[in-house]
Amino acid sequence: MKKFIISLTLVTFTIPCFAWNNHAGITYLILKDHWKNQTVPMVKVESLNSFLNQERDSIQEVLSISEDWALTKLPHLTKTSEDLKFSPKKNDTNLVPQFYRALRVNPNHKAALYIQSVPTKEGKKLSLEELTTLHEKGKLVNETFISLIEGEMIGADEVLVTATDEPDYDLDLHLFEDNNSEVGKLYGFGTQPFGNPAVEFSSQAPFHMGFFYEPKIIFTLAGFLKRTYPELRIHQFTELSKLAFRKGHSYWGYRFAGWALHYIQDLTQPYHSSVLPRVSAAKQIGVQLVSFVGYQTPKNNMIEFVSGRHTLIEEYQYYLIKNLIQTKNWNHPVASSIMNLKDTEETKWNRVDDLRVNVCKEAYDAGEAADEQLENLNITKYENLYEEGHPIHSILATLLKNMSKHTRAYLDHLIK
């Protein structure tokens, strides 16, 4: 049995850890429609350190509320040690590192003042070195980031669009004991449950995925799959957003809301709510068992097929959304699915407790059909964009409509 668990762990190492590659672009399309009949609020840009210094007496109370909630929801979560809690002394001025440690996020995250240029906007460009600690920048090299100055006014939509992408820049990197980092040994998350701890971007996987509907036998044999943390992040950043709005820090109200939305949007992705869509528990167990006697082909094929479809949908979506925004092709079936939500398709956001039912179950259920349709396309990898009537667009339209409705519901609830 131990060998089985080790083998299944290795399977999950190979599954891609990306979700929606283009959070900013998709959120731009959502807000372009959702806020079209209202004046977009303007907010004053404020540094994180300024916010923390002004609200230093309230921060730990908010973080404690989130932790108390999470400890009841996530049995695998450990308490934050006392020496990590946010308790600045009177003469402390740079509170950002202490705040990050209290959140148990990457203490080197930069939280620069900037917007992602979606669509293209003029301004002083921000270098990637000022934005992220990632060694492998990936698709960030394709994007343009514009510096902001503290005190200037900016549209709330630009803050949200930018912030929904930000958690992927390094916020959840290297937080486990086996990630070869100082904080990994301090934060109490244990060893990385899945994803490859030796791969930089993969170290964030358990914070951006949530497996809640796998067959009981899978959870029995691979209990580590339960050790996920997106709900913790959503609750933390939602409560911080509420605090910021209550205290008059609208910029950080929207920015924290965008951070929370990132994880919600991730969980609308079927490959982030299901380990191996369309692969039954019996088959997963079977391929592990035959691999013990040296027959690796079934397991390798299973991994290759599922991870290939996961990667394909992410790659294709990224370049498609960029093209739709550049060409302003709002009538494209994917753009239309994101932007034109009917009243009957709307949903409501009540609380983080309902996330598993409202968001994750929907994504899990959508995974089987989407995976089968992607397999039938017989496309091995992204090479170019297809004509509007291509079936890959109907797959994306369905999945991104779900992302659109949950994004709108969360924002409506929070801003009210």
Automatic annotation (TrEMBL):
Q: Which SUPFAM superfamilies match?
A: Phospholipase C/P1 nuclease
Signal listed as a keyword: yes
Keyword tRNA processing: yes or no?
no
Question: Which positions make up the signal peptide?
Answer: 1-19
UniProt keyword terms in alphabetical order: Signal
- GO MF annotation: an example: hydrolase activity, acting on ester bonds
This one is known as Phospholipase
